[in-house]
Amino acid sequence: MCNQHSKEDGCRCRVERIPNFIQPRMLLKLAKKPAHGYELIELLGQESGSPPDPGNFYRLLRSMEEEELVRSNWETQNAGPARRVYELTDLGVDFLHTWAAVIQQTQKSLDRFLSEYKTLFPE
Q1: Chain segment 33-49, per-residue pLDDT in tens
Q2: Is residue 5 part of a domain?
Q3: Which CB contacts under 8 angstroms, 24+ apart, belong to 76-83?
Q4: CA–CA separation, 14 vs 78, rounded Å?
Q5: At residue 85, what are phi and psi to the nearest 5 degrees?
Q6: pTM for the whole thing?
Q7: Count of the separate structural domains present in the chain
Q8: Could you list the residue range(s) of the whole structural domain that residue 116 is in?
Q9: Which CATH number does the domain housing residue 84 bear?
């Protein structure tokens, strides 16, 4: 939601309308260090202000594992229940590079849009 509208106003410029790049953000976090799912949800939530939907998140994580972008192992060393820890594969690193190129191109398009917008509507 933007700063100009409240939920009650039915904000039409919701951030959700811009792709949230959840997959490349997950890959980037895992490139830094292996993590369990809940930890990734927390990190992504801190970054964006709201955590991803857990159901969709775990479906995407399983899909990424099936595509061999990530792999998981059960961590049983710590106290408490076993947790699945995910890490990035070499294929995942390659895919992260592809995402970075796509995001860079998208950023250029957004910069052009904002430049044209500011020309029409100076502050």
Answers
A1: 999 999 999 999 998 88
A2: no
A3: 83/36, 83/37, 83/38
A4: 40
A5: -110, 130
A6: 0.79
A7: 1
A8: 22-120
A9: 1.10.10.10
